[in-house]
């Protein structure tokens, strides 16, 4: 008995310690995972903000259902066990109850489905894209193209641990991050050159398959400049775990400066677009 009690106390202490750690851990940093993170990364785009809200909303509904079912189960176990209730009721139908336990779950599902579909369509594509980024998955790195800026192109490889600079996360930092302007609706087109990859940046709510011979579309708008990290999220071969994506979000003027520099370095005429290039051919 004494052994049982002390084990119970140990379990209770462990639960309290876990809850304490969860509270101390607080909200996670934006842009990358952190040790003892207890929830999703801080949302940094309108899509991720809404995903986060929907997640919290469904979690609350779920907690309500769990408490109700546990309560009913506990009540039945204590109130209607063989000792307390030796002659059980023979009731087998209750029309009102049966209608209620059919209709209420349907209403709960509708209450989840409506905001869920609204969010799916919101995520699907942006109404007014201000620029386009093309993302191409390769075994095992990402490359990026800016079709609105004369097809500037970048290859982005994971940095090896020995090349990391101060503060750069292991297995997430890349040699050439893709640079994008803040406060801009960016259309993202994904595809792949070999097998299926998936372009995913958790803090921005991005996760879109990159499929050879096919273009998928998604979009992003980032309000806060900074580094945002993600990883390929489709098992794509032996180095699948080593093809991170890093997005560097900078103020608009800084983006323009970076873009002219990169265009000059790649010998690209800034006026050239896919349309003008096609016309010149
Ligand atoms: Cu991949």
From TrEMBL:
The Swiss-Prot or TrEMBL record lists the needed cofactor(s) as: Cu cation; heme
- The chain positions of domain Cytochrome oxidase subunit II copper A binding read 128-261
Q: Name one GO biological process term.
A: ATP synthesis coupled electron transport
Keyword DNA repair in annotation: no
The UniProt catalytic activity note for this protein reads:
4 Fe(II)-[cytochrome c] + O2 + 8 H(+)(in) = 4 Fe(III)-[cytochrome c] + 2 H2O + 4 H(+)(out)
Q: How does it sit in the membrane?
A: Multi-pass membrane protein
Q: What does this protein do?
A: Subunits I and II form the functional core of the enzyme complex. Electrons originating in cytochrome c are transferred via heme a and Cu(A) to the binuclear center formed by heme a3 and Cu(B).
Name of this protein? Cytochrome c oxidase subunit 2
| The organism of origin for this protein | Caenispirillum salinarum AK4
The taxonomic lineage of its organism, from the top, reads:
Bacteria, Pseudomonadati, Pseudomonadota, Alphaproteobacteria, Rhodospirillales
């Amino acid at each position: 008995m004494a052994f049982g009690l002390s084990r119970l106390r140990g379990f209770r202490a462990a639960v309290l310690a876990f809850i304490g750690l969860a509270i101390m851990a607080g909200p996670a940093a934006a842009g990358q995972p952190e040790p003892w993170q207890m929830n999703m990364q801080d949302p940094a785009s309108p899509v991720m903000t809404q995903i986060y809200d929907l997640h919290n909303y469904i979690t609350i509904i779920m907690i309500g259902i769990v408490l109700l079912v546990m309560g009913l189960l506990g009540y039945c176990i204590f109130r209607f066990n063989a000792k307390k209730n030796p002659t059980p009721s023979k009731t087998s139908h209750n029309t009102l109850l049966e209608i209620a336990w059919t209709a209420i779950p349907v209403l709960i599902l509708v209450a989840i489905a409506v905001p869920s579909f609204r969010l799916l369509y919101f995520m699907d594509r942006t109404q007014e894209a201000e620029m386009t980024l093309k993302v191409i998955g390769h075994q095992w790195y990402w490359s990026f193209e800016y079709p609105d800026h004369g097809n500037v192109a970048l290859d982005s490889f994971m940095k090896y641990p020995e090349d990391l600079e101060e503060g750069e996360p292991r297995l997430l930092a890349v040699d050439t991050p893709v640079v994008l302007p803040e406060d801009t609706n960016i259309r993202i087109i994904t595809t792949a050159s070999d097998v299926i990859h998936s372009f995913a940046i958790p803090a921005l709510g991005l996760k879109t398959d990159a499929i050879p011979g096919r273009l998928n579309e998604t979009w992003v708008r980032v309000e806060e400049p900074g580094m945002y990290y993600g990883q390929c999220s489709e098992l794509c071969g032996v180095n699948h775990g080593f093809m991170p994506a890093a997005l560097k979000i900078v103020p608009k003027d800084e983006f323009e400066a970076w873009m002219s520099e990169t265009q000059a370095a790649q010998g690209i005429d800034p006026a050239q677009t896919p349309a003008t290039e096609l016309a010149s051919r």
